[in-house]
Design brief:
With about 240 residues, the chain is of the alpha+beta class. The protein has five helices and seven strands, in the order αββββαβββααα. Strand 3 (about 75-85) and strand 4 form a beta hairpin.
Length: about 240
Amino acid sequence: MKKGRIALVLFVVLLAAGYAAYRSIDLLVVYAFEHYGPQILGVPVKVHGAHISVFDGTGRVEGVDIGNAAGYAAAQAARVGEIRVALEPLTLRGPVVRVRELAVANASITYERGDGPANLDVIRRHIRAYVDGQQAAAGGAPREGSPQPRHRYILDRITIRGVEVTVTHPALHGQGITFELPEVELTDVGKSRGGATAGEVADAVTGALEQKIAQRLLTRLDLLRQGGVQGAIDALRGLIRK
């Protein structure tokens, strides 16, 4: 009887430990976003929830708020409703993590520009500075605040759907122009180099988004001209050029 009770207690302890380990994966994902995200992007990052399966490598991250660069009016540069991910679980312990799919859905982006560069340009410059620092670290000359990354990633497919963009500029008098972006798709990110760092992945995604935004803005110039908003047209041209 006593042995049976001991076995039962051990079983309960193992269950509790297993559940704690399962939950810790979610907490680690949230920590990674909120700790490393600001280092890479140069702006605050807040995550509202994460649910990752330790069994098949699938999961989702919910409600990612990306703050804006200093000196810009909008509170956030972007908000992502959901990120779904499918990993190869066996690669999580190795130096190169294989991501079968990374799907971003229901995002809103504020593309803001005053007399200087757009807010997304400022964020992307910070990303590139971070990547340069990591490359310097890998070459034996580390920059302060840019440690050598522990993991690299190969992403088979990245998709970004349901993105709403609001473009603002002083010439638009606070009104802004809002439009939907077509789907963004990237494939085999990091594959040719044996893996990309998180910063390099962020740079590739930001660059693809900026390109789509510029293409979409071109289709809006005629609509603005019909409305007689010449100042806004000049502002948008500046956004596209820079």
